[in-house]
Amino acid sequence: MTLRLIATDLDGTLLDSTGTVTSRTRRALDAARARGIHVVPVTARQPIGLRAIAAEAGFDGWALCGNGAYATNLVDGRMLFAEELPPETIRTLAQALRASIPGLLFASVREGGETFVAEDGYAEIADYSDHKRHPQTMGGVPLDQVLAAPTLKLVIRHPELSPGVLFEALRDLGLVGFEATLSGAPFVEVMAEGVTKATGLARLCEHLDVSQSDVVAFGDALNDVEMLRWAGHGVAMAEAEDVVRDAADEVAASNDDDGVARVIERMLG
């Protein structure tokens, strides 16, 4: 392959366990950029969470947020595309899931990822690390307001039940019209039908005139699987689950051992 684009997940992949970019990783990313290689964060985060580390990582161009639902330019705020879930779909989903699991809480990501609309009670069980925004800024509205407008990502969580349990319950409903996944965060994430990190990356690569075969992608969680399979060379992190490792062409060292940087250094020769 001729390496032309590096697509990397952030949490558990590019960032170490303290949530920072190590000096070795930054040097590797800078070396790639110096050769004209695009370096693109592909994340479940919203722009607010990307800005927190953009300077550390040197991100200064396109980014894929919301698990591939939308592409935003971190410098000028341009949106290349945005795929939203319609209100009728999320209302049907929420009604069916709440009938089987009491106590669920929902939040909606809107308006280019800048607006976060949380149900009453959501902020009380949220931490800053969940969405890279302070819970006291989340407010709280009735559920019908959360579900009243198109969303880039619907967040579903429970005070006691794990995301894995909620994810399986959602799949067991047999509903269609959306894409659900897990990122390692304490909630289930729901995007528009067919939206994954792979579909977002494919659209961005088309815009940049980069061939699929010239992309290396890094990830560690369920929401990275499609991207690792799609890329010309997919790299799973050492501590990724089996389903993620099986989707990759290579397993790198852990995020705390500069796994991404080691692979980039080798590929740059």
TrEMBL record:
<dbReference type="InterPro" id="IPR023214">
    <property type="entry name" value="HAD_sf"/>
</dbReference>
<dbReference type="GO" id="GO:0016791">
    <property type="term" value="F:phosphatase activity"/>
</dbReference>
<dbReference type="InterPro" id="IPR006379">
    <property type="entry name" value="HAD-SF_hydro_IIB"/>
</dbReference>
<dbReference type="GO" id="GO:0005829">
    <property type="term" value="C:cytosol"/>
</dbReference>
<dbReference type="InterPro" id="IPR036412">
    <property type="entry name" value="HAD-like_sf"/>
</dbReference>
<dbReference type="InterPro" id="IPR000150">
    <property type="entry name" value="Cof"/>
</dbReference>
<protein>
    <submittedName>
        <fullName>Cof subfamily protein (Haloacid dehalogenase superfamily)</fullName>
    </submittedName>
</protein>
<dbReference type="GO" id="GO:0000287">
    <property type="term" value="F:magnesium ion binding"/>
</dbReference>
<dbReference type="Pfam" id="PF08282">
    <property type="entry name" value="Hydrolase_3"/>
</dbReference>
